[in-house]
Amino acid sequence: MTRNRRLKAFPAFVLLNIIFGTAFAGLAVSAANATEGDGTPVVTETPVPTETTAPDTTTDGSTANESTPVTTVPAHPRATRPVRSVSGDITKNDDGSVDVAWADGDRDNTDPNYDLFADLVFHVSNTENLSYQVVDVTWVNGVTSPQGEFSRNYVQIMQCWDDGSGTAKPENCQWGAPSSALSSIAGNNAAGRGLIENEDAAQSYADGFRIPPPRTNPNLRQFAVPFVSVDGKRDFNVLSFFDSTLTNEITGAPTANDGTGSQPFEVHTSLEAPHLGCGAVQPGGAVQDCWLVIVPRGEYNTAGIRYTDNIGSRLNSSPLSASNWADRIEIPLTFKSVVSGCAIGAEEQGIVGNEIVGPAFSSWQAFLCRDSAVFGFSQIGDSEARRQIVSELDSAARLAIVSDPLDDTTAGTATLEYAPVAQSATVIAFNINYLLGSNSDIFDKNGTLVTDLTLNARLVAKMLTQSYRNDVPDGDNQLYLRSNPRSLNHDPEFLALNPEFNDFVGYIEPAGLLTALGNSDAYSAVWKWIRADEDALAFISGTEDEWGMKVNPYYEALGIDADTTLDSFPKADQSTFREYSYIPDPGYSSFELRPYVLDMAESALKVLRADPGSKIYWDETRNPAAFISQGAQPLGRRFMLGVTDFASAQRLGLSVAHLVNFGGHAVAPSEDSIAAGIAEFTDSEVSGVSVFNPKMTGSNSYPLASIDYAVVNVCAASDAQLRDYATLLDFVAGDGQHIGSAYGDLPDGYVPLSDADREATRAISKALTSEVKSPECAEHVTTIDTTTTDSTLLPPVVDADGPGIVDTPLVNVAAGETPRDPSSAAKFAILSALCFGIPSIAAGRVLVRKGMDLPT
Amino acid sequence: MNIRNPLIRRIVAGVSLALSSLTVFGSVDAALAVSYVPISGAGSSWSANAIDQWRRNVTQYGMRINYASTGSSDGRNQFKGGTVDYAVSEIPYGLIDNGRKDDLPTRGFAYMPIVAGGTAFMYNITSGGERIANLRLSGDVISKIFTGVITKWNDSAIAKDNPGLTLPDRTIVPVVRSDGSGSTAQFTLWMSKQYGSIWNAYCNKVGRNECGMTSNYPTISGMVAQPNSQGVSGYVAQKANEGTITYVEYSYALKTGFPVAKVLNKAGYYTEPTAQNVAVALLGAKINKTPGDNYLTQDLAGVYNNKDPRTYPLSSYSYMIVPTEAAGSFTADKGKTLAAFSNYFLCQGQNQADVLGYSPLPGNLVEAGLEQVKRIPGAEVADININSCDNPTLDKSYFTSAPMPSECDKLGASQCTDATGGAAGGSSGGTAATGGTTGGTTGTGLTGSSGVGMTGTMGTGPTVCDADTGVCSSVKALPIATEALGWSAMNWVITSVVFIIVLIIVVPPVLVTAAARKRR
User: Fold this and answer.
1) Is B338 on the interface with A (CB under 8 A)?
2) What is the interface pTM, i.e. ipTM, of the complex?
3) With an 8 Å Cβ cutoff, are A396 and B355 in contact?
4) What is the model's pTM?
5) What's domain A346-425+679-773's superfamily in CATH?
6) What CATH number labels A427-664?
7) Binary contact (A348, B57; C-beta < 8 A)
8) Considering only residues 758 to 787 of chain A, which have any Cβ-Cβ distance to chain B shorter than 8 Å?
9) SS3 helix, strand, coil % of chain A, rounded to 5?
10) Based on the structure, what is the number of domains in chain B?
């Protein structure tokens, strides 16, 4: 990453020194040194792991007397098991992924689980230079998991910090804070850290594993593997470090009928999990490494007891218990050094914008705050954002990031500049398990995740208009829906596009299509795409499809076929339903059956968690009694779809649907297809701004591609705003278009701007800078009188090169100063002083001398 | 415009920071790099739009803040149960609701005001195909609508509030919250204090023995109950749901693009819950300053009855409930993060309030809030200082510059026609910006030097009118910075002036000398 801003700042510091003399120079240089550190990562305070963590918490049963060296794996006390190193060779592939075969590790072939694990091979998509991101863990040759519960034959995954001992330690792992929904479908302690005394002959039950008994019962003998954080804090209560909302542990991932499994795993850095510290820079400059630990679970407990002999017929015991731990695969993870956040406290320059640009802006602002400008981003709807920048409110932002330009009425007489900033897409993300009838030809896929799904405009329209029976309260008994299929996967049109769903069991169905509350240009584009499609338009106008399905009449009444202003997702069906007469009238409505999510990011999260949030179960025990949610869909029976932004879907590793464009091509969002889609955008009335084209025909044009523009109300912006906006746009046109996961990078799910677009943005940046230096707006010229106070307080710096270049140094924002320019009034005052003064000095001398020469 | 704090303060701060960085020279990086641990909270959906923005913005400071907008009642319960690190609620613990007391948590806690806002009445009515967007309502009419006394939009009482409107003969559908909600608590508190007889009569009718404030709205037939702020605002925002009205934080009306009713205040004006109207109204709030469990809780009687014509009567604060002791899963490390986050939103974060449809907290509450932040275990107390707090209301002009309501907003025979809330799009700003559209120069001369095709708007020369004087002037297009760093026409003018001055000064004596020499 270039640091050209630093180059600009440095001469400015030198200039400052000249003005303020040597005393100040020392200060300035020290400040410059402080910012210089940005080139190398800022050190996060992360104490080295202390020795105290090691002794009494190893997996070894007899730590004290055997004094095992820390660099090797502790010997197993059971005589039948050899001393071994655990994991096996790690094969690195060219794409950065790794493969590990379970049997390559030093395994005990007398273990009753041995045959169940023997052929397992794990694949991890990415293990080096990680940041906060999702990696895919997949495996083959496993034994099929049972459906809906973790009773046997599943896989557990966790992240642990590396203490330099060469192997992962159970006490260093982020594990044991499952959600109640998950722990309820796993066996006793299987999702936790708890141990039962002597259940595992390999496990120590020494004092280090005994939970301190309560004063009321000093004889209580409860055991667990404590958590030890990277900075040496040791606690049996993991909640002081992480809880079910913060952990990344995978309580269980199922293996499908064909023996394969797949599980996205969210890798945590020291920012998400400071107690693991992965990626934190240690005092010596080394970056903290971590482990990815996979523990396969078979059919036998630690004591060799088969799961069927346990209460509930489920496999018991924690994966951290020594015998289970010995079955682990451990894969070293290396991290990019985590650059800590900016110092808090600098004044923020407010920016408003739509949600599509949100994830990119989060990344940009975290980089820009280091040495350029601190921004505060407010995510609001496009139309609200457009209104905001031309509002008369003093505190209003003058830069908004939106898709469509302002119309003439809104723009009024404002001087507006448009700069392209980000390309991405609206997507339909999904999380669907194959749930197949046993006579299916693809039965091998049962339990795995569906990765391909194709939707056309009419299918999306059907979901958005509550036209499937299961999207309407008591939909099966609503006469107006009686000729409609129960749900998407029962619709012949969908089945024709996605034939695999013919093999699904009949009772599985999606929980609608998640949509967010609010207005946005992205939602407007969805409707434009639907209206542009002949079949979809006919459908929402009330025409039956080929199979006799009709639009929900509540939506027909809305006139959405002709409403070009529609930029939200209505929930228009007014039906309500109560199953029993003791439930008060009217029962639940569409808003409880298919509730809105807050925004697209939440939509993606709910798809990932398979939690539609439907509150349709009446709970009499509540005070007052209320409809409640039954939580996430059970594992193996997930069928979720949601409208979200591509970046949110990518961050969570969600699969996204192919959408059929106007030309009839089913296209998935990708860098190429989004760029191809945007290439088909049409020119708007505002030159340089292209707008969504619902009639894309390219064979690889993704129909819901989007491009966002930063629009600046130039004359209404203050000098400070213009300067910050120029900085932002200059960065966005350059390094801000690099795809990556570091601060300042465009996150996955965006497409870098074309060179022409970058040039356009850079030009706007320059124009804004120029407006500060030599204002053209009436507002900026007439502010001379009111801003002279600035010049009395902030000494301007005149460039030695000559008049016209007046600048203030870019001060390190992290040091608490926000850069401000002297006003143009000050510039002119100094300029004219110089213009008059310097010649006058010369002229005065000449005059005096010549005057003496004059004849008296 | 953006500089609200005296510049001098910032310079002093900058110099002292530079000094301190000098003293710790070698360890500068470590001192700047503060590490935080992730924290989680739950509660109010009334405040959720503001909290979501703040937590996104502090990711640049290395913080990971989680928040679930599950409703105030749920937030308070979760905090009590120790499953979240903080809760957000519009009402405190200890209140009696439907005969049941909401017990205090056993762990130490404090209330900290986080953001102000107006509980708005968002509605959906059309007349002759046109959306009505300038509805006005007085308090007793609102109370009667939400208690089933007034059931038709063309009721004479509503007509009295709206002399300029002809409202349709349509049934009013009040939309209320189905979950335990702080918005419901604020609204019912207001009704019980201001329109007690109407509210009590309703309470008795629905069979509640204890009247007064409640978090769970008692419904009757004809009302619609929906979960969460998204639920009620989403319901009203359905085109088909005509005739509906709900109470929800103003930001949700902005978000969905729907109007809100202007509410009659004690000065006889109908006002909208804009940031400034809420801020002015809350100058009348009495804050409990008695140390104890209710420290900093609000008594809003002075807000409801504030005589300032700008007052929006249903203005209130929302609170964060923070732990004051490290217990259970709440550690000093979490406290450090929570304190830094709180410090952020009490200061910088308040600048976003009005953009989002909230109102910045007034200075005295920010100050009191910062004192509460210091009580969070692990708080970096030295960083918490009202003097370095960038909050817009610390500048008194925030209140004095708040615009007075128009005469047409006064109780009486006239009625403003401008649209409110999220529906304000088309008509706002139309009054001042209708100046001439002619004038302006074409931009060819200016764009010539740069090859990067600037947008056409640059050259069209828009006309800008001064809002104060009404004087309109033609604005020349923006110049383009070339590689030479903007050596513009103005620079040429200055240079030539300088050159001429130099000539005027230097030439005469030279000439005189030359002449003298010649003469000699």
Assistant:
1) no
2) 0.71
3) yes
4) 0.74
5) Periplasmic binding protein-like II (3.40.190.10)
6) 3.40.190.10
7) yes
8) 759-760, 762-764, 766-767, 769-771, 773-774, 776-779
9) 30, 20, 50
10) 1
